[in-house]
Write a structure and sequence with these properties.
Number of domains: 2
Largest sheet: 5 strands, antiparallel
Number of strands: 29
Radius of gyration: 23 Å
CATH architecture of the largest domain: 7 Propeller
CATH topology of the largest domain: Methylamine Dehydrogenase, Chain H
Distance between the termini: 38 Å
Number of helices: 7
């Protein structure tokens, strides 16, 4: 990352080299979009200045702190899986609501745009394998047709060829693996999505869905593909209703949240009858029900976490700057009501300054929500602390329960000239360890701070920063905790994660580097065996 490949730098200055570099490979559209948020010209100038200063011998002005205390007790076990041309989004090892499910069993990954081959690891036999994810419609688009420029590593040949865009996996109580995945073109919606034949399509007809649902049963090695009207991105089973699978839409636009009754689906095989979705409606007229006087938001859940204490479902939307949304980043609480979607209302909350723009969400057994913030903070939100009404004319602003928030600054440097109350560090997502699978305690939030290539936990108000020192490039997007043997102490518990970077070839190991599976455990002391 600190040196631009020669093929981009040999014929011009650093600005031109960075311009060429960010137009290379199959991720060029993503890179252009990210640069556009920052301002293309200013961003390229800053990258060019950065590499010029490094080439001239400049060193970072700040140093990471060496591991302290319990951070020194971490045991890391690693495996390679998938291929050197693929990349992983994340993995699943167990049921997030019952972490003894699939004890000592296989771990499954999601490969997003890179391939339709789902990586599988047997950590007992140390065997990595792959299973092919099917799709329903032969016209389903492939990532091989993405706009691309010549890669310094792979030339002109596309290395990604995924149709299914497998984003996020989760496991149910029976050990079946569910994915948010594309099974047909976005605009090929079934009629029931728009014809008003069910309550959801009557209330909020949907004309397209770029990603849907699938489920793989390891016991039979069979796939089932579920055609959802609503878009899917992340997914989570409700702890109070373990047969109900809630999803997020990812980016803005749809303005709905969708769910699947898996029990009904398995008994009937009926996609239409098993799914529902609801628009995001804020009760701004304080009537206690959705009606014409309320505010409908075009926001959508990016992260999703069903409540551990009631029937509500929480989500989070990106703030201004993500796909040019003309609204702040919200934490949202959706209450289905007695007859969803007709009775469904949503509360929205924004963090206090200097925090802004949540990304990712999870909840502890205590009902406290945790989110990472783009401002370089880890934040909790406790709705029980709210003092005033949560509906009415100001409800859509999200500023009516600032007292519910607590912010923790992420360790690490801040950008020069920017408020030191924040940090240049950032996290992709957060996972709450409800069952003490890692050993830091119950309900400890663990943030995937890929800005500092670490996992960051908040324990008793203090930050524990867990690093994987080798190979360089520990970049992860989610974690999963499993209990293989509750009687075996730390040896029977572990946190599982995978490398989540799209460019494994930028990491230590180069082009031959493959995605990793990481198993992290914490010993009672550094020398415990």
């Amino acid at each position: 990352m600190r040196k631009v490949p020669e093929m981009f730098s040999k014929d011009g200055n650093s600005y031109q080299a960075w311009a060429k570099r960010t137009q290379s490979g199959q991720a060029m559209t993503n890179m252009a979009t990210g640069l556009g948020y920052m301002g293309y010209d200013a961003a390229i100038k800053n990258f060019a200045d950065w590499t010029d200063r490094i080439a001239a011998g400049e060193l970072p002005f700040d140093k990471p702190q060496r591991p302290q205390g319990v951070e020194r007790n971490v045991v890391v076990t690693m495996w390679d899986w998938s291929s050197n041309k693929a990349y992983l989004h994340d993995l699943v090892s167990t049921d997030k609501n019952q972490p003894t499910v699939n004890a000592n069993g296989k771990v499954y990954g999601s490969t997003e745009e890179s391939t339709d081959l789902v990586p599988v690891l047997d950590p007992v036999k140390h065997v990595a394998s792959e299973i092919k994810h099917p799709y329903k419609d032969p016209e389903t688009p492939s990532s091989s047709s993405l706009p691309k420029g010549t890669s310094a590593y792979w030339g002109d040949k596309p290395i990604w060829d995924g149709h299914t865009s497998i984003h996020n996996p989760i496991m149910d109580r029976q050990g079946r693996v569910w994915f948010t995945a594309r099974i047909r073109p976005a605009g090929a919606q079934p009629k029931f999505c728009t014809d008003g034949s069910n309550a959801s399509s009557k209330l909020a007809p949907l004309k397209e869905s770029p990603r849907h649902l699938s489920v793989y049963d390891p016991s039979t090695a069979k796939w089932q593909l579920i055609d959802t009207c609503f878009p899917t991105h992340h997914l989570y089973f409700h702890p109070k209703s373990p047969d109900v699978l809630w999803t997020s839409a990812g980016g803005p636009g749809s303005g709905v949240v969708g769910w699947l009754d898996t029990k009904k689906y398995f008994s009937s095989g009926d996609d239409a009858a098993s799914q529902r979705w609801a628009p995001i409606v804020v009760d701004t007229n304080a009537s206690g029900k959705p009606d014409e006087g309320d505010t409908k938001l075009r926001a959508a859940f990016y992260g999703v976490t069903p409540s551990t204490v009631d029937d509500s479902v929480w989500g989070q939307s990106m703030g201004i700057g993500f796909a040019r949304m003309a609204q702040p980043g919200f934490v949202m609480r959706m209450v289905p009501g007695s007859n969803p979607p007709d009775t469904t209302l949503t509360e929205v909350f924004v963090p206090p300054m200097p925090g802004y723009s949540p990304r990712g969400i999870d909840m502890g057994n205590d009902g406290v929500v945790w989110v990472p913030l783009a401002s370089g903070h880890m934040a909790s939100f406790d709705r029980k602390k709210c003092k005033g009404p949560l509906n009415g004319p100001d409800a859509a602003s999200g500023k009516h329960c600032q007292e519910g928030w607590t912010l923790y600054r992420m360790p690490g440097p801040q950008f020069k000239g920017v408020d030191e109350k924040g940090s240049a560090n950032h996290a992709y997502y957060v996972w709450v360890d409800r069952y003490n699978t890692l050993g830091l305690g119950k309900d400890v939030p663990i943030f995937q701070t890929n800005g500092s290539e670490s996992l960051m936990a908040v324990v008793g108000g203090k930050v524990v920063d867990i690093r994987v020192p080798y190979p360089m490039g520990f970049f992860t997007k989610n974690v999963d905790g499993r209990i293989d043997d509750a009687k075996a102490g730390w040896k029977g518990r572990a946190l599982w994660t995978t490398s989540g970077t799209r460019t494994n070839f930028h990491n230590e190991g180069g082009k031959e580097n493959r995605p990793k599976v990481y198993k992290l455990q914490i010993r009672p002391n550094p020398l415990a065996s």
